[in-house]
TrEMBL record, chain A:
Keywords: Signal. GO terms for cellular component: ATP-binding cassette (ABC) transporter complex; periplasmic space. It comes from Frankia nepalensis. One of its GO terms (biological process) is peptide transport. The lineage of its organism: Bacteria, Bacillati, Actinomycetota, Actinomycetes, Frankiales. One of its GO terms (molecular function) is peptide transmembrane transporter activity. Residues 1-33 form the signal peptide. Residues 101-425 form the Solute-binding protein family domain. It holds the Pfam family SBP_bac_5. Transmembrane segments: none annotated. This is ABC transporter substrate-binding protein.
From TrEMBL, chain B:
One of its GO terms (cellular component) is plasma membrane. It comes from Frankia nepalensis. Belongs to the binding-protein-dependent transport system permease family. Keywords: Cell membrane, Membrane, Transmembrane, Transmembrane helix, Transport. The chain crosses the membrane at residues 97-119, 131-157, 177-198, 236-258, 287-308. Coiled coil: none annotated. This is ABC transporter permease. InterPro entries: BPD_transp_1_N (IPR045621), MetI-like (IPR000515), MetI-like_sf (IPR035906). Signal peptide: none annotated.
Length: 519, 316
């Protein structure tokens, strides 16, 4: 974001051209349009002992990406769930900071022996923030809407295996699946599983849920404020008010943390962390994420349809060097982050080997070099794409960076598949299934991948599921369908006196209910 | 005068109409669409199509334009495609931040930049004049975001005198807090603007200094200062006024750099977010508003010229 305001100098010549001025105004708008925001990610938690907890405290959390709507049933992206899930909206089940899944609005549930029917018993005494009691009909309405024909819920795919939602009595909800789904309980803890009040309106601007915080206000372009739900059915939240402040500028976020304007803030630039190192007033909190920075290859289009070229590119990029340059992140050799049960270290596939990369390119007929375009949304740090360019130059691949706005990427790359190389952060958890999709933007259609994915999700045991997912991750890595550059880290700095904040995946879920401010 | 006003208003309306068409069409040239942004990467193409239909962005362009224009003529700027909020409401809210920012900066810039510029012009051979001239150059050359960063680091982070950024959540409910949060951004913005005004005031002063009428006035026995004041100031004010008008208008959106550095929820920030989301109805509203501002300011500057310069009043 380095734009200077246009300084117009027309001076003396100014009697003509009212229309010209108009055009300048319009153009100024469009030019500004061309400069997007900054990169984003966030997070962590910590525990600081001592002192007395202040139940009347307000905690200010510095985040980066503001949601464009609060409607969790139609809006995409992780920013909505980040502030609303767990805090305001809840599901039958809930996922905590460590990834453990526990019953929430349900007090208990059981799965039938054939693995196709979940029966949930609703917890007693749960009310929505407007005072109406939660009933099975709210759950049925919320979940059925996701899978209804004509649904525009962007997360409807999470419930691909869900056939029907019914309630035999006001305390029981029955979910019937079309086929076994090893990840189903996981998806129930996500945005698709949020339980809203039946008939709730104005979801884009307000939120009425059952959680430990009630929605207070959303100041567009600035902040979202939640206040403690004093009639919450479970453990009361530790602070009276949470303010999520959106600060896109890295330095501004840093200054807000330093001056105590925010109590805990996401620090994206690892260079800024040094100043906090050893400072007793602050704690640096690092956590894991599911932010897989993925170098996508257009597998359906020459020259990347040639597996040798894809291997060459993977072997031509030194990921350890990238981590050093980028200053954060951890290595991954596949689409599976270490927190997933089916993680396996695959970094030995396509190890850094520029000599072999050149040989592979020569075999593929590109001994004299190759020109490729890398389409990358401008929201990501340019460090990564520039590093790729310089690395690939050494093996004779000339890469041109095409930095675009995210909507352009969506249209050109994601929808129209018009690209060679693409760089995006695949932030969604458990998205290995993308490699089993028939018309995904990578252009990879492999019946074997689809078979493995089906076998994994319909597995009857966890071991069987994990075996198949592992095989799938290995397959796509061995075929060099994509290159997985790094897994982002969640980095936050918290001021001393704050504790109980989440540490992991804070860009997709920031559970504030356990935050405590000590005096 | 009445005739001139009438003609001006006619031109204004026509310009706006042309601008609305241009803005509408140019925005349609941007790649990407709002339905895809809403749906994200997890929705199916069928879902995207459904959203497109619900939003009405699959209708013919002419139809979309006319329905938007119809709304605007009735004072309805439409609603955001992403969250349904009223565009005019949002514009009003953002202006409570951006307008004081730009107005405050312009005022400060005039108060400081113009006198210094005149000084630099009338003493252009003295060391002080040279120093001021260099300072003006420097003020224009230094990027405003850098100035903002430095000021924040010193005043807000080191000395803790003022907030490092942000605007009170309840806006102007607490005027003192609102003013405090605007001090650094206003100063930063005024520095750049003041430097520009200084340059223009200086060269305007230099120009009139050599004008025949000043020589005549001097010959009649006036001192250089009095001659400048009586006869020069009006003439020198003309280009300065023009620049001020242009600066003010361009800063309504151009202040975005400063808004970003100080995380102020202003007009420019909103525009960038909206363009990033392809929330075109909101973008159109914002750009149209700024266009109106540019035209009105141009009109006011013109009136100012006529008041200052009798020659313009006579020439129809």
């Amino acid at each position: 974001m380095k734009v200077r305001p246009p300084t117009l100098r027309l001076g003396a010549r100014r009697r003509r051209g009212r229309l010209a001025l108009t055009a300048v105004a319009a153009a100024a708008g469009l030019v500004l349009a061309a400069c997007g925001g900054d990169a984003a990610s966030d997070d962590p938690a910590g525990a600081v002992g001592g002192g007395t907890a202040d139940p009347n405290a307000t905690v200010v959390v510095g985040l980066v990406l503001e949601p464009s709507t609060l409607d969790i049933t139609t809006g995409s992206g992780v920013a909505i769930a980040q502030v609303l899930l767990n805090n305001v909206y809840q599901g039958l089940l809930e996922r905590d900071d460590e990834g453990n899944i526990t019953p929430k609005l349900a007090s208990e549930y059981k799965l039938s022996d054939d693995g196709l029917t979940y029966t949930f018993t609703l917890r007693d005494g749960v009310t929505f923030h407007d005072g109406t009691p939660l009933t099975a009909s709210d759950v049925v309405a919320s979940l059925s809407k996701v899978i209804a024909p004509g649904s525009t819920n962007p997360n409807a795919g999470d419930f691909a295996s869900l056939e029907s939602v019914t309630s035999p009595d006001p305390k029981t909800v029955v979910l019937k699946l079309k086929s076994r789904d090893a990840n189903f309980t996981f998806w129930l803890t996500g945005p698709a599983g949020a339980v809203l009040k039946d008939g709730a309106t104005d979801l884009a601007e307000t939120a009425v849920g059952t959680g430990p915080f009630t929605f207070d206000s959303w100041k567009h372009g600035d902040s979202i404020t939640l206040v403690r739900n004093d009639s919450y059915w479970g453990d009361q939240a530790g602070v009276a008010e949470v303010v999520f402040r959106y600060i896109t500028d890295v330095n501004a976020q840093n200054n807000a943390v330093k001056t105590g304007q925010v109590d805990i803030g996401a620090i994206l630039d690892s260079d800024l962390l040094d100043a906090y190192e050893g400072d007793p007033n602050f704690t640096i909190v690092k956590g894991s994420t599911t932010d897989k920075f993925t170098l996508g290859f257009n597998n359906a289009k020459a020259p990347l349809s040639d597996e040798r070229v894809r291997h060459a590119i993977r072997q031509g990029i030194d990921k350890d060097g990238l981590l050093k340059t980028f200053g954060q992140g951890i290595r991954i050799g596949s689409d599976v982050p270490p927190l997933d049960p089916w993680y396996e270290d695959l970094t030995s596939i396509d190890k850094y080997n520029p000599e072999n990369a050149k040989k592979l390119l020569a075999d593929a007929g590109f001994a004299s070099g190759l020109d490729l375009t890398l389409t990358v949304p401008n929201i990501y740090p340019s460090t990564i794409s520039e590093y790729i360019v310089s690395q690939l130059e050494e093996i004779g691949v000339n890469v041109t960076i095409r930095s675009v706005e995210f909507p352009t990427w969506l249209t050109d790359v994601f929808t129209n598949h018009d690209y060679d190389l693409s760089l995006v952060d695949h932030a969604e958890p458990r998205d290995l299934g993308n490699y089993a999709k028939t018309n995904y933007y990578w252009g990879y259609n492999d019946p074997e991948a689809q078979r493995l994915y089906q076998a994994a999700v319909t597995a009857t045991t966890d071991a069987e599921r994990d075996t198949n997912f592992k095989a799938l991750a290995r397959l796509v890595s061995e075929k060099a369908v994509s290159d997985w550059l790094l897994l982002g880290e969640s980095i936050q700095v918290a001021r001393t006196g704050i504790s109980g904040y989440p540490e992991n995946n804070t860009s997709s879920r920031f559970d504030a209910s356990k935050i405590v401010v000590t005096l | 005068m009445a005739l001139i006003l009438l003609r001006r208003f006619g031109l204004l309306a026509l310009s706006l109409l042309v601008a609305s068409v241009l803005v509408f069409l140019l925005l349609r040239l941007l790649p990407g669409d709002v339905a895809q942004v809403i749906a994200g990467t997890r929705a199916t193409p069928e879902q995207v199509e459904r959203i497109r239909h619900e939003l009405g962005v699959d209708r013919p362009l002419a139809e979309q334009y006319l329905s938007w224009l119809g709304g605007v003529l009735r004072g309805d700027f439409g609603t955001s495609a992403l969250n349904g909020v009223s565009v005019s409401g949002q514009l009003g809210e953002k202006l409570t931040v951006t307008l004081p920012l730009v107005a405050g900066a312009s005022l400060l810039a005039v108060l400081v930049g113009v006198p210094l510029g005149i000084l630099a012009g009338s003493r252009h051979r003295s060391p002080a004049g040279h120093a001021l001239s260099v300072a003006g150059q420097l003020g224009i050359a230094v990027p405003s975001f850098w100035v903002g960063l430095m000021l924040t680091t010193l005043v807000a982070v080191q000395w803790r005198l003022l907030p490092a950024g942000g605007f009170p959540r309840d806006g102007w409910a607490d005027p003192a807090a609102a003013v405090r949060s605007l001090v650094l951004p206003v100063v930063t913005l005024a520095l750049l603007q003041g430097a520009v005004l200084l340059r223009f005031a200086r060269s305007a002063t230099l120009e009139v200094l050599h004008a025949d009428y000043i020589r005549t006035a001097r010959a009649k026995g006036l001192t250089e200062g009095r001659a400048l004041l009586r006869h020069g100031a009006r003439n020198a004010a003309l280009p300065v006024l023009s620049v001020l008008g242009l600066e003010f208008a361009s800063l309504l959106l151009g202040a975005v750099v400063i808004e970003n550095v100080f995380t102020l929820p202003g007009l420019g920030q909103m525009l960038i977010a909206d363009v990033g989301n392809r929330d075109l109805v909101k973008v159109q509203g914002t750009v149209l508003l700024v266009t109106v501002a540019v035209l009105v300011i141009g009109f006011l500057v013109d009136l100012g010229h006529r008041l200052l310069d009798p020659r313009l009043r006579e020439a129809r």
